[in-house]
Amino acid sequence: MTAAGTAAMPPGWLIPDWPAPARIRAVCTTRAGGVSAQPYATLNLGDHVGDRPADVAANRAALQTAIGARPVFLQQVHGREVLTLSPGTPDGSVGDACQTEAPGVACTIMVADCLPVLFTDRSGSWVAAAHAGWRGLAGEEGQGVLEAVLQSFRKRTGEMSGSSAGTPQAGEVLAWLGPCIGPQAFEVGAEVRDAFCATDAGAAALFAPGRVAGKFLADLAGLARRRLQRLGVEQISGNDGSGAWCTVSQPARFFSHRRDTARLGGSGRFAACIWLEGDDPAR
Fold this sequence. Notes:
23% strand; 283 residues; four-stranded mixed sheet; alpha+beta; six-stranded mixed sheet; 6 helices
């Protein structure tokens, strides 16, 4: 994890440290750089959390200016729908993942404890982003939002190659895991553990006994990493489950729904964005 180093971005924002092609741009915002008042101070990007609409609009405009691309804000519903974005895709479109090949359109995921996952391919011709809370990550019968993104990638590459098999395979995909609630803070019920272990017994290793009987501490980033590895994604960067990535333990840096809603009455949202710059050199 590295801090933003360009003059246009607040120094507290995160630039993914991963081997993405040169034309791929990505950033994860923090609380720094906005105009919202507590409990949304300062760069709240969520328009559904009770913040003043004018402040949210100003914050979103500041993000667009900083990155030089248009962030598309989804209505996220903890599902697995993958939207294909174009320059005209309206904010508020319903989905928990998005993809694009259009330069200047930023796939954008808002979070405040859930895990943002960014994707590109080794050729730098495609980007995607996913909102991975535990429900979207677990999905149904082992098919969640990450599987949906990889299925979309395989369909795209299959159409390009003229093959119904959807090659090249997931080894062409790069993934970056952003900040989320950490494994020492994410206490869940047995139903969450069961949702993962029902289709992958090995996922049990990513749940530790909780503080009270019947509860477990879940490693959300670890569960996502395991899912991606099982899907064939070989290059996974970012969140390793350490404290530096935990939203709950860093109130000055990250919003946290679990930490702030009960204590302060609300929580803002930060965002992870990924986009393509310039024209596709392969076209």
